[in-house]
Backbone:
């Protein structure tokens, strides 16, 4: 598995500038399909400071280690700061026994993390790319998710959180671009969240770390540097299972998560400015459990729904939303619930611009629905 | 080009220096101090400097293979007649402990026999016996403390029994009744007990290995070890590799206890691996390793005790491979005569059976007799039958228990599914076995 990963920098040879240069290049190459706009109306009191998403995650991890003296962070290359800099300086600050590298083995990382959590210690595991979470699928699906249930609540691994960078990044191709949330959404017993920016990333990560159930956090890697906003420096948590209405509207509902939310916000602006159509944009935030009430309330109000995600269409999480919406809002719908997603192909390299559910594809579908 | 030339020149110089150093060892220090480039002085040492291994050079090309070193020997205390071979190696166990160990082995045998037959009669859905491997359970369990955390595979009921799990608790789990600690959710023999620090068994093989390592990491410094049992077949899973490697690199006080009983269902060990068993892999991971006669309860005890002491003192893993033989079928869903001869099984049962061997030892010490044996077997049969009868009569947990403990708190979507099912069951109650569940 290791050999297939993006250029990986060993601790000894790596220069920070090399990494940051690489990530900058990566972001520059990839940020064309969306425009990041910070959250408006953030209702969190206290001091705030400008952070990008990897800094906000780093800040959340720092907060978690500070407030829980037994919490540990581990994974491949997390010791020197992580290939995306999310664990920067944490080993220096908290020591090698609390922030450490593991051997290169995802099933081991997940299994080890479960064991740490079973013994009552907070375990924060990192899978270097969500594309490489599949070797850990058995541990996460058969073990982590079922631990409490199968033991009659005698044992659990609720103190486990697994972080994994996910989603398109411009040139990540098959194994540095995937969005595997739907595979895990079919698994009772785990919780799954996807942040859309720095504030969300910090608040959700802290919630997941402290939640009594095992959680997966899929972090859209293209946002690590591209997304910058004023992040509260204090300890705060944001709810799991709660969707956010980012733009209020009355004609059509656009639902997405992660990076796609920013695409949809642009689509809403285009619909409003060019076509005088009022779109409501919902960030689902939490994949499992997901916020049926917020989604169905909006769908009932607008009567038209587009769900957009980067992952392939067939059995993507959009299918779950679409089925639920038609069941709950049947009499209110004025057009079929429509999904704009990646095609049912592997995630390609040079064809990425035509693979993604771009704002143009979303706009096109939205206009079709309005005219339905 | 210039750069390449320079590099070549340096390597030539190095080669020359190395050849000089090899013939004139006294020069080593001087050359080091006056090296061409101080920062890379280690590259001028005579030994290989690769970060991947601390080793020496050789100019002879040859394979390292299984015959390059002798197989790891099997540690034993007793012979097949229960006689201690080297008196100094006999563990100094009190009469009470010895009898507790033996009695647990007998009770386990009797329970196995009755539950196996009850499955054959269709009274429980599934069962797995422990025949032939009683010494691996009891010997290791006796060498641990109740605070040590146990992760098992499924054929370690003796460990749980030694720790105090009652016949009633075993049977309640197999029935999945109202008193089952697992709330009727798993197949029979998937035991677990928080109170006894025995992590609930799950069916996927080897998943418990890296988990045991994680728990050992978390428990480091608490004067507890984690022991993790698994079979020779399970050791082929990727999770076993993950666990061995993580335990070594992360310095975890875990004892990996492999029950090598010769078979994984129908697959004999020569189709499972071609190295020196499971023990042969330990040193390759940098793990201290022991191989022990799994039919010799005293040898297993000593090995586990030795492993525990070292694991605690050094904060490092130990691998124990207990060689034994699976005398019973794999499970009640298996007929082992389809892939091995009943004669082979009978030979093991007759000539090298752990309970028998231990009984000889106790009789030699005057601690056991035919009368005592008869009495214990009869009493245990009665006890098992009573627990069995009671277990069978108990209702299953309330059916809505099905929705509990998926998460710590019931989420709205599962609550809705439960409510929908409650409405359905009200309408169609005659089509569901509601009578067997608690009201």
Residues:
């Amino acid at each position: 598995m290791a050999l297939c990963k993006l250029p990986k920098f060993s601790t000894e040879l790596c220069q920070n500038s090399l990494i940051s240069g690489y990530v900058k290049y990566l972001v520059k190459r990839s940020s064309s399909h969306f425009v990041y706009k910070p959250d408006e109306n953030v209702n969190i009191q206290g001091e705030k400071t400008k952070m990008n998403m990897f800094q906000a995650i780093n800040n959340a991890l720092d907060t978690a280690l500070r407030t829980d003296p037994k919490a540990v962070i581990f994974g491949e290359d997390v010791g020197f700061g992580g290939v995306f800099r999310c664990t920067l300086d944490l080993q220096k600050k908290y020591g090698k026994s609390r922030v450490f590298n593991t051997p290169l083995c995802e099933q081991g990382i997940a299994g080890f993390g479960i064991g740490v959590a079973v013994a009552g210690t907070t375990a924060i595991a990192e899978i270097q790319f969500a594309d490489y979470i599949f070797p850990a699928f058995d541990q996460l699906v058969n073990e982590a998710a079922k631990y409490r249930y199968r033991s009659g609540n005698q044992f659990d691994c609720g103190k486990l959180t697994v972080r994994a960078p996910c989603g398109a990044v411009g040139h990540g191709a098959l194994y540095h671009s995937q969005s595997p949330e739907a595979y895990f959404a079919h698994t009772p017993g785990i919780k799954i969240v996807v942040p859309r920016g720095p504030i969300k990333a910090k608040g959700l990560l802290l919630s997941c770390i402290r939640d009594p159930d095992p959680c997966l956090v899929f972090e859209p890697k293209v946002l690590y540097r591209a997304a910058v906003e004023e992040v509260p420096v204090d300890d705060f948590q944001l709810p799991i299972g709660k969707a956010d209405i980012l733009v209020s509207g009355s004609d059509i509902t656009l639902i997405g998560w992660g990076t796609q939310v920013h695409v949809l916000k642009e689509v809403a602006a285009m619909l409003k400015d060019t076509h005088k159509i009022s779109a409501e944009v919902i960030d689902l935030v939490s994949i499992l459990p997901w916020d049926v009430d917020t989604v169905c309330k909006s769908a009932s109000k607008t009567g038209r729904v587009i769900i957009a995600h980067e992952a392939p269409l067939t059995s993507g999480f959009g299918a779950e939303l679409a089925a639920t919406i038609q069941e709950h809002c049947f009499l209110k719908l004025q057009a079929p619930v429509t999904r704009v997603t990646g095609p049912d192909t592997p995630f390609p390299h040079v064809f990425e611009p035509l693979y993604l559910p771009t704002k143009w594809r979303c706009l096109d579908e939205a206009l079709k629905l309005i005219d339905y | 080009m210039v750069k390449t030339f320079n590099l070549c020149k340096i390597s030539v110089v190095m080669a020359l220096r190395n050849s000089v150093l090899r013939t004139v060892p006294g020069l080593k220090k001087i050359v080091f101090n006056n090296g061409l480039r101080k920062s890379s002085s280690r590259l001028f040492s005579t030994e290989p400097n690769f970060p991947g291994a601390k080793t020496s050079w050789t100019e002879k090309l040859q394979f390292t293979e299984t015959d390059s070193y002798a197989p790891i020997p099997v540690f034993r205390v007793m012979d097949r007649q229960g006689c201690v071979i080297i008196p100094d190696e006999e563990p100094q166990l009190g009469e009470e402990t010895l009898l507790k160990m033996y009695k647990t082995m007998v009770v386990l045998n009797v329970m196995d026999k009755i539950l196996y037959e009850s499955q054959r009669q269709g009274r429980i859905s599934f069962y797995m016996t422990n025949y032939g491997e009683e010494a691996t359970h009891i010997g290791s369990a006796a060498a641990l403390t109740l605070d040590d955390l146990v992760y098992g595979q499924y054929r370690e009921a003796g460990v749980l029994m030694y720790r105090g799990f009652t016949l009633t608790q075993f049977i309640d789990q197999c029935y999945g009744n109202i008193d089952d600690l697992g709330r009727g959710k798993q197949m029979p023999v998937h035991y677990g007990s928080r109170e006894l620090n025995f992590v609930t068994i799950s069916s996927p093989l080897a998943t418990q290995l890296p988990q045991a390592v994680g728990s050992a990491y978390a428990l480091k410094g608490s004067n507890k070890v984690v022991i993790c049992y698994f079979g020779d077949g399970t050791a082929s899973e990727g999770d076993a590799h993950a666990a061995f490697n993580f335990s070594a690199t992360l310095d975890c006080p875990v004892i990996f206890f492999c029950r090598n009983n010769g078979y994984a269902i129908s697959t004999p060990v020569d189709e499972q691996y071609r190295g020196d068993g499971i023990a042969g892999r330990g040193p390759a991971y940098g793990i201290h390793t022991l191989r022990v006669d799994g039919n010799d309860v005293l040898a297993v005890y000593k090995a586990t005790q030795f492993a525990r002491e070292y694991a605690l003192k050094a904060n490092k893993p130990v691998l124990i491979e207990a060689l034994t033989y699976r005398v019973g079928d794999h499970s009640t869903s298996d007929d082992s005569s389809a892939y091995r001869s009943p004669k082979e099984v009978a030979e093991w049962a007759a000539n090298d059976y752990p309970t028998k061997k231990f009984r000889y030892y106790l009789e030699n010490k005057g601690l056991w007799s035919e009368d005592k044996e008869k009495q214990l077997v009869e009493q245990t049969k009665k006890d098992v039958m009573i627990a069995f009868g009671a277990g069978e009569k108990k209702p299953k947990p309330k059916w809505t228990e099905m929705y509990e403990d998926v998460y710590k708190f019931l989420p709205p979507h599962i609550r809705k599914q439960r409510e929908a099912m409650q409405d359905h069951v009200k309408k169609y109650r005659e089509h569901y076995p509601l009578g067997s569940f608690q009201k």
Q: What stands out?
A: The longest helix of chain A spans residues 260-275. Chain A touches chain B through 46 residues (CB under 8 Å). Residues 1-15 of chain A have pLDDT under 50 and may be disordered. Chain A is about 35% helix and 20% strand.
